[in-house]
Design brief:
This is DUF1697 domain-containing protein. The chain has five helices and eight strands. By secondary structure, it is an alpha+beta fold. The chain has two domains: 81 residues, SP0830-like domains (Alpha-Beta Plaits, 2-Layer Sandwich); 91 residues, Alpha-Beta Plaits.
Length: 182
C-alpha cells in the first residue's frame, strides 16, 4: 500500500553551509523510486509517497543517497502523514490561538522519556514551557525560538545524547500535515 511521508532533514541550508538545493533533493527522492515528491521551504522538508512502510528504512536510504549526491551526511527523520496528524492533534498548547513562531515541535529519532529532562528547571524558564509527546517535544516560546532560553537548555547534548532531533515551527508542522494528506 502506498503511503505519504514527510522527510525532515536536519541542519541543511543554514548559514551558507551544507547546501542541499530543493530541486536536487526532489531528484534524489525520485531517484530512490518515491513518487509525488514535493519540497516545502528551503530548510529540509520533503513529502513523498512510497510502498515502503518502515520509516527507518526510508530515512536510512535517503541519508545514504544524500551523502552520495552531496558529499556529506545529513541526519534525516521520515514520518508518516498519520503520525504527523497525530502529533498535531495531540498538541498540549492552544495552537489555534498562537502565532506559528511561538510553537515548535522537535521530532526525535526514538521515544524520549521525561527522565532525560529531569534536570530542567521548568519554573525558571516561564512563561516558556515544554511537553513531551510521541517521539516529539512541544515547545511554547512566546518570543520565538531565536530568543528562547528554554530551547537552548533543551538542546544541550546531555539530555539528547544519541538521539537525532530536528525542530519545526507550528506553521511548518501544519503544512506538512496538509501535504501528507493531499
Amino acid at each position: 500500500m502506498t503511503r505519504k511521508y514527510a522527510a525532515l532533514l536536519r541542519g541543511i541550508n543554514v548559514g551558507g553551509s551544507r547546501k542541499v538545493p530543493m530541486a536536487e533533493l526532489r531528484a534524489v527522492l525520485s531517484g530512490l523510486g518515491h513518487g509525488d515528491v514535493v519540497t516545502y521551504l528551503q530548510s529540509g522538508n520533503a513529502v513523498f509517497s512510497s510502498e515502503e512502510s518502515d520509516e527507518d528504512v526510508l530515512a536510512a536510504g535517503l541519508e545514504q543517497a544524500i551523502e552520495g549526491a552531496f558529499g556529506f551526511r545529513v541526519d534525516t527523520l521520515v514520518r508518516s502523514g498519520a503520525y504527523l496528524r497525530a502529533v498535531a492533534d495531540a498538541c498540549p498548547f492552544p495552537a489555534a490561538s498562537l502565532q506559528g513562531r511561538q510553537l515548535h515541535v522537535t521530532f526525535f529519532s526514538e521515544p524520549v522519556g521525561a527522565d532525560r529532562f529531569a534536570s530542567v528547571d521548568a519554573a525558571a524558564h516561564l512563561p516558556e514551557e515544554f511537553r513531551l509527546g510521541d517521539r516529539a517535544l512541544y515547545l511554547y516560546a512566546p518570543d520565538g525560538l531565536g530568543r528562547s532560553k528554554l530551547a537552548v537548555t533543551l538542546s544541550r547534548p546531555g539530555p539528547l545524547k544519541g538521539v537525532v532531533a530536528t525542530s519545526r515551527n507550528w506553521n511548518t508542522v501544519v503544512k506538512l500535515v496538509e501535504m501528507t494528506h493531499a
